[in-house]
Every structure is written in structure tokens, then in C-alpha cells.
């Protein structure tokens, strides 16, 4: 199996699929092609949340603001999975999650004279993903154009500061529903019925419909983190936050 993730929308993923079909007979699965445009951190967050549910696969990821520059192309081996994409940090959080290690095996993909300087998803990453699938994740270093490297762009999510009474954190992402997902672990809300969010009090509920429509709430999302939400509305608007904003929670 080869999965595909990008911020391309359509029709560009079809070209990557065409190239993959030239190199492999793998089953191709689209994860999403509407990740926030050129937003490496948001994409890294969502990949960490969804790719662990897949069986062993090669994961092709292209969110690549640096396409056409001297940024490297890399492959990462993490357990029975491999990741292929740009060296901008987007692959690291999910690789650490699936590899159960803080130091995943990282390889640089050597390439020259790509057909296009603006579409490495088609010309560099897709051929590499197909070749890795065919040779097998355990043997990817046997490919002639792949070599281990210790130089790479890292990406780590910020850690919250938590005491018994308060937490200082950050809005990591806002999903399409407007739910503002924080980096504060959901356990902070244990045995709490209401919480002060940046100075304003909101109820703590197990899910959205536990409050009336258009009312604010704080809950623990499926990702396990504290989430600011509105039943049938947008939590980011109601709480006045967006991704990257600082956050203070007080019991």
C-alpha cells in the first residue's frame, strides 16, 4: 500500500498516481489533498493523528513550500512504515509516533534534473515511493539513490506548562469545523466541570451536543487534547483564537 497526502487539491495528485503506477502495482490510498496550503506544522499534526491507523505502508507526503530550492528529499523508516517527502519536518512527528523512537532512520534521496522545479511530488517523491514499495521497507537502503543522513529539518510541537491549577499552552490547529485544538493533554480537565479560557469561563463537557446549539464548550477531542468548541458553530470564532495563539486555562 502507498498512501498519498498533499495540499494540492486537484488535479495534481492524479499525476503522482500515474507515476506510481509506472513503478509499482501497490494499492494507492488518498489520505487527503486539502491539507492547509503550505502549512507544514498543521499537516504534520494531522498525519500524526491519522496515519497510525493504517497497516504497514509507504506514505508519500507533499506539503512543500520549499520546492525547487536546495531543500533535500528524504525517506524515513519507522517500524514497518516508510515515509517519503520534503525535508521540512512534516514527516518527523508521525515517524516518531509509528517508529516508537525519538530517532527514526532518515535517508536522503539523491536526485538530479527533475523534469520540473515546481512539482517534485511527481518527479522526485512519487518515483522514490514506488521504488521503496517494490524493494520493501526493510531494504530501502539498498536502493542506489538513497543514503543514510543525520542532517535534516526537525519539527516538534511545543510543550505546555501545567500545574495543578492552570495550564499555559498553544492552539496547534483549527479543524474544518472550527474546533481549536490545543497542545494541553485532555487529562488536565479530569474532574473539572468548568474552566477559565483566557479569562472567560466555559463549561467542560464530554461532547458537543451536551450544550445547546451555538453555545461554547471545552472538551477532549478524539486526538486526546483539550479542544475549544461550539455546538454547531465555530470554536475559533467564539473563543477569539486561531492556530499559533497562546492559551491559558485555569481551573
UniProtKB/TrEMBL annotation:
<feature type="domain" description="S-adenosyl-l-methionine hydroxide adenosyltransferase N-terminal">
    <location>
        <begin position="2"/>
        <end position="134"/>
    </location>
</feature>
<dbReference type="InterPro" id="IPR023227">
    <property type="entry name" value="SAM_OH_AdoTrfase_C_sf"/>
</dbReference>
<feature type="domain" description="S-adenosyl-l-methionine hydroxide adenosyltransferase C-terminal">
    <location>
        <begin position="169"/>
        <end position="247"/>
    </location>
</feature>
<protein>
    <recommendedName>
        <fullName>S-adenosyl-l-methionine hydroxide adenosyltransferase</fullName>
    </recommendedName>
</protein>
<comment type="similarity">
    <text>Belongs to the SAM hydrolase / SAM-dependent halogenase family.</text>
</comment>
<dbReference type="InterPro" id="IPR046469">
    <property type="entry name" value="SAM_HAT_N"/>
</dbReference>
<dbReference type="Pfam" id="PF20257">
    <property type="entry name" value="SAM_HAT_C"/>
</dbReference>
<dbReference type="InterPro" id="IPR002747">
    <property type="entry name" value="SAM_OH_AdoTrfase"/>
</dbReference>
<keyword id="KW-0949">S-adenosyl-L-methionine</keyword>
<dbReference type="InterPro" id="IPR046470">
    <property type="entry name" value="SAM_HAT_C"/>
</dbReference>
<dbReference type="Pfam" id="PF01887">
    <property type="entry name" value="SAM_HAT_N"/>
</dbReference>
<dbReference type="InterPro" id="IPR023228">
    <property type="entry name" value="SAM_OH_AdoTrfase_N_sf"/>
</dbReference>
